[in-house]
Write a structure and sequence with these properties.
The chain starts with a strand and ends with a helix. The radius of gyration is 22 Å and the shape is flat. The chain is α+β, with helices and mostly antiparallel strands. The protein is built from 4 helices and 4 strands. It has 2 domains: 68 residues, no CATH class; 64 residues, no CATH class. Helices cover 40% and strands 12% of the residues.
């Protein structure tokens, strides 16, 4: 039976409490973002992110030694899945709205891609695997 080396990770929030003199909350927030002094930082272990897969290699102890195997999307970090899904949905919405404004029918391939994107979004929200992308949708930009 084959062996696989799997790299998993989680994000650990690191925070600091700093006080800034500023005329408005907006200016104080800008000062905080631009402040590079993290000498008083603390880790928030109780608010760590989910564990997700960041790498797969075939073989024992094979991390970074050979060709990485693509990580199936549903094992990735949920926030990254959501960000990629947002970009996909925005692009599809722009195409479909553009077709509607121009009073032209949206090609069936785009509607199929949109249906798949809806199912994928529902899977992401449910923490489930991505649905199989329809064959004709893979050829669309």
């Amino acid at each position: 039976m084959p062996q696989f080396t799997i790299e998993t990770t989680y994000h650990l929030p690191v925070f600091r409490h700093s006080t800034y003199l500023a005329e408005t909350p907006d200016v104080a927030c800008r000062f905080a973002i631009e402040d590079t002094d993290w000498s008083g930082q603390r880790e928030d272990c109780e608010s760590s992110g989910e564990t997700h897969v960041t790498g797969i290699w075939q073989g024992a102890g094979a991390a970074y030694r050979g060709q990485a195997i693509p990580v199936p999307a549903h094992f990735g970090e949920a926030v990254q899945r959501k960000a990629a899904q947002f970009e996909l949905m925005l692009g599809l919405l722009k195409i479909i709205v553009g077709d509607a404004k121009a009073r032209r029918p949206t090609p069936p391939g785009w509607l199929g891609k949109a249906e798949w994107a809806i199912a994928r979004g529902e899977a992401i929200l449910a923490g489930a695997r991505d649905p199989v992308e329809p064959g004709d949708a893979k050829d669309l930009p």
